[in-house]
Amino acid sequence: MKRVLSIILGGGAGTRLYPLTKVRAKPAVALGGKHRLIDIPISNCINSDILKIYVLTQFNSASLNQHINQSYNVSDFRQGFVEVLAAHQTPENPDWFQGTADAVRQYLWILKEAEVDEYLILSGDHLYRMDYRDFVKRHRETGADITLAVLPVGEQRASSFGLMKIDETGRVVDFSEKPKGDALKEMQVDTTKLGLSSDEAVSKPYIASMGIYLFKREVLIDLLTQQPEQADFGKEIIPNSAKNLNVQAYLFNDYWEDIGTIESFFHANLALAKQPDPAFSFYDKSAPIYTRSRHLPPTKQLECHVSQSIISEGCVLKECRISHSVIGIRSRIESGCTIRDSLLMGADYYQSDFERKGDCDRQAVPIGIGSNSEIQNAIIDKNARIGCNVKILNKDRVEEAEREAEGFYIRSGIVIVLKDATLPDGTII
């Protein structure tokens, strides 16, 4: 695996995850209470002994850069590196990244310096655990120019992916990016070719690209230099390559979730608290998910009732009720609060009187959740200040709303309180 270089794409402006991406890059969004999205592909690489890792960033990348620098020390992972390559303008490339392939193309001059045989292209906003060693082994055994990680999917999800057809050897013979209607129907295949059972094949008759690509070194360099007009892997490079090159499919029939939308991100986080047997678990000693070491104190719970929830370290919870929720680091929840089906991202720092006696007689709303507040079906971004007797319930079932001046948005019926926002005492949403 020393001959593989990983390139993690930091994504575009993250409009589907807005407002969580208002002040941060998409891969820097918090996940599961203490991690960030970028920790998933980086950890998968480290666990697969791929230790040469570049992360390409462009939008709101300051917090992402800081997280990577503080989390992944070269000396911790032998002779590897995790380095950020931020978008920049030059006389030769006066524009920002125009797509996934263009992002890699603009840094090809650095990537070519690495003494490797393959380039592994990954996305920074997927939730899954994968051993890339099996992926690379399959690529080398088939002599593939390009290998795609693929997932069998049903009709409901199929139109959201690039779909393909394969022959008996696993070679991709047709590729269609997010087809709909009759074009979608034409991409149905017998997925027993991938090893699925007959029952599985009936419910999942499509082969979807996961956006994970493994290229031979020379093939990627040639494609990016000889076809400079092609800016995107999924829409241009891969479909065109399938016509002339040996493009192979590698089956990954396990949990994988694209968490690029508010709704999918929200439900993926809450699913982490599911018991027993969550679809994705951080509790795997053979393949841990790494993140920044913060040396926080343990969480203090004072007469709380907590069920089916994740409580991160460094919190103080006072006489509250929490169910089916994820509570982030340094969260402070005062007495009388009820938190249901919600994601609290916590705080970046402690206030000087973090463990103070909770009361509502003060001049400024502190970071955290004030006494007797009720929160349901919501995302509370970092450092938010929720006053006393606040109700975040969306009882009118509003699906979409933009109330930035008031400190919140509603996306797919989910209330999102903005980072650093303040909701005064008695606010009702």
UniProtKB/TrEMBL annotation:
Enzyme kind, highest EC tier: transferase
Keywords for the protein's UniProt record, in alphabetical order: ATP-binding, Carbohydrate metabolism, Glycogen metabolism, Nucleotide-binding, Nucleotidyltransferase, Transferase
All residue ranges annotated as the Nucleotidyl transferase domain in the record: 6-274
Cellular component GO terms held in the UniProt record: carboxysome
GO biological process: glycogen biosynthetic process
EC number, as in UniProt: 2.7.7.27
GO molecular function: ATP binding; glucose-1-phosphate adenylyltransferase activity; structural constituent of carboxysome shell
Annotated PROSITE patterns: ADP_GLC_PYROPHOSPH_1, ADP_GLC_PYROPHOSPH_2
CDD domains found in the cross-reference section: ADP_Glucose_PP (cd02508), LbH_G1P_AT_C (cd04651)
Family: Belongs to the bacterial/plant glucose-1-phosphate adenylyltransferase family.
Protein name: Glucose-1-phosphate adenylyltransferase
